[in-house]
């Protein structure tokens, strides 16, 4: 019996049984961008620094962030034992301020993790790193017995404020104001259940939050929260719900892990309604739990095979049953 689970867009070891998948007709537009020669990395997140041309990849298994240099060399940017991180979940780069933001949460994917939610609780934190030096600039941690926390993903506002999705003890959004050094809860609503991927509109006035029942829209100026309207026949909830979420030219790009799909959702002029959807990738041969990605101009790079299902009662599968992490890329415009 498998010990992993799909829980509203987040795959974690030892939670609830996985749901059976339907059969979807493959639709392949992606190409392999690169692979990472570390089979047991078990990555969840990826970010790109256009200044240096380097990619950063977060590991749930090893609680670290690796740096893939422009020349193809791979190095550890930061490791779990340096600053006490657990599984690395969402990561995001503030290019202007030269900061790497990291969501880290406890969980059984993390090698050597023994805490039990109902006894010790589940710790989680947001870590702030100097992007150029790899040194810790600050961390914001919840770690209390019996409290179950999970920081999931990050969006950075144009003014440098950081918004983070959080679930379990509360299903909410937290914010770290630029320069404040304070983590504060700013949004909590029954319209945001198990919040996951998060993305700002280009002008920073709208914040889109993927969750177990669809996508919520937050008006940053008024604080109003409303569900994003969805056309008939489009399912982006529960097992079709979205993990990584990204804004591109009045559309949203979403990764749907449990159905091995990457979808583009086109918005109306108001940004409050999806008017049509377009598949970017369905059932690519390299897919084994796709999770999150990164936009680089008009190209979407994403983790194709987080391999969260490659655990059993004895732990992670042996190395010969694992595959190198694969990063796929797909162009969002017809002309490139």
Structure description:
With 336 residues, this protein is an all-beta fold. It has a single domain (4-331), classed as Methylamine Dehydrogenase, Chain H, CATH 2.130.10. Helix content is 1%, strand content 46%. The chain has one helix and 29 strands. It has one helix spanning 80-83, and strands spanning 4-7, 10-13, 27-28, 31-35, 43-49, 54-59, 65-68, 74-78, 87-94, 99-105, 124-130, 136-142, 149-156, 162-168, 172-176, 183-188, 198-200, 206-211, 214-219, 225-227, 245-247, 251-256, 261-267, 274-282, 293-296, 299-303, 311-312, 315-316, 326-331. The strands form eight sheets. A five-stranded antiparallel sheet has the order 3-24-23-22-21, with no helix packed on it. A four-stranded antiparallel sheet has the order 4-29-26-25, with no helix packed on it. A hairpin with a 6-residue loop joins strand 23 (261-267) and strand 24. Mean pLDDT is 92; it is low at 1-22.
Number of domains: 1
Q: In the CATH scheme, what's the topology name?
A: Methylamine Dehydrogenase, Chain H
Task: Name the CATH superfamily assignment.
Answer: YVTN repeat-like/Quinoprotein amine dehydrogenase
Beta-strand content bin? over 45%
Give the biggest beta sheet. Answer: 5 strands, antiparallel
Radius of gyration: 18 Å
Strand order of the largest sheet: 3-24-23-22-21
**Number of continuous helical runs:** 1
Structural class: mainly beta
CATH architecture heading: 7 Propeller
Please tally the β strands and state the result. 29
Low-confidence stretches: 1-22
Q: Please report the first level of CATH classification, the CATH class.
A: Mainly Beta
- Please give the alpha-carbon distance between the first and last residues: 46 Å
């Amino acid at each position: 019996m498998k010990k992993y689970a799909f829980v509203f867009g987040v795959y974690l070891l030892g939670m609830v049984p996985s749901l059976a998948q339907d059969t979807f007709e493959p639709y392949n537009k992606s190409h392999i961008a690169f692979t990472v020669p570390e089979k047991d990395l078990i990555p969840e997140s990826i970010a790109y620094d256009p200044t240096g041309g380097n990619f950063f990849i977060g590991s749930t298994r090893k609680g670290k962030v690796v740096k893939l240099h422009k020349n193809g060399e791979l190095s550890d940017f930061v490791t779990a034992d340096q600053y006490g991180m657990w599984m690395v979940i969402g990561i995001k780069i503030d290019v202007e301020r030269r900061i790497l933001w990291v969501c880290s949460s406890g969980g059984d994917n993390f090698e050597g993790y023994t805490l039990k939610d109902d006894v010790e609780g589940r710790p989680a934190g947001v870590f702030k790193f100097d992007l150029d030096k790899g040194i810790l600039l600050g961390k914001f941690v919840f770690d209390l017995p019996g409290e179950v926390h999970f920081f999931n993903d990050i969006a950075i506002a144009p003014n440098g404020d950081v918004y983070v999705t959080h679930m379990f003890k509360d299903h909410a959004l937290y914010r770290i104001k630029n320069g404040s050094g304070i983590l504060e809860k700013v949004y909590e609503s029954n319209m945001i259940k198990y919040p996951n991927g998060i993305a700002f509109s280009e002008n920073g006035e709208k914040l889109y939050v993927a969750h177990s029942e669809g996508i919520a829209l937050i008006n940053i100026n008024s604080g109003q929260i409303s569900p994003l309207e969805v056309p008939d026949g489009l399912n982006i909830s529960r097992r079709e719900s979205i993990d990584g979420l990204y804004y591109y030219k009045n559309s949203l790009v979403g990764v749907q892990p449990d159905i091995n799909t990457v979808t583009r959702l086109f918005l109306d002029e108001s940004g409050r309604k999806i008017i049509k959807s377009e598949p970017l990738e369905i059932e690519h041969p390299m897919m084994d739990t796709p999770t999150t990605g990164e936009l680089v101009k008009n190209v979407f790079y994403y983790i194709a095979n987080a391999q969260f299902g490659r655990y059993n009662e004895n732990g992670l599968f042996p190395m010969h049953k694992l595959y190198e992490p694969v990063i796929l890329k797909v162009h969002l415009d017809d002309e490139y």
